[in-house]
């Protein structure tokens, strides 16, 4: 699975959309939107993905190394649901 954030310009300012995509099924399985780009934004998208997934045990979850994805809360949630975070793999190599 992969996750990322995109920016959407609106008349009221930026809207941030976080998504989680299942590459095997080639579809978006988790989304979250907010007026601020916070770790809660990506956590909400991951929780949405978990609700739409039978099991994430052993599934690799890839994202960039931005602060939101590196946050302890996001990494703990991913680990709790059995994801193998590409960030943690990268950090283990260093």
UniProtKB/TrEMBL annotation:
First and last residue of the signal peptide: none
Domain Integrase catalytic: start-end pairs: 2-83
InterPro entries documented for this protein: Integrase_cat-core (IPR001584), RNaseH-like_sf (IPR012337), RNaseH_sf (IPR036397), Transposase_IS3/IS150/IS904 (IPR050900)
Biological process terms in GO annotation: DNA integration
Gene3D superfamilies: Ribonuclease H-like superfamily/Ribonuclease H
Any GO molecular function: nucleic acid binding
Protein name per Swiss-Prot or TrEMBL: Integrase catalytic domain-containing protein
Source species: Parablautia intestinalis
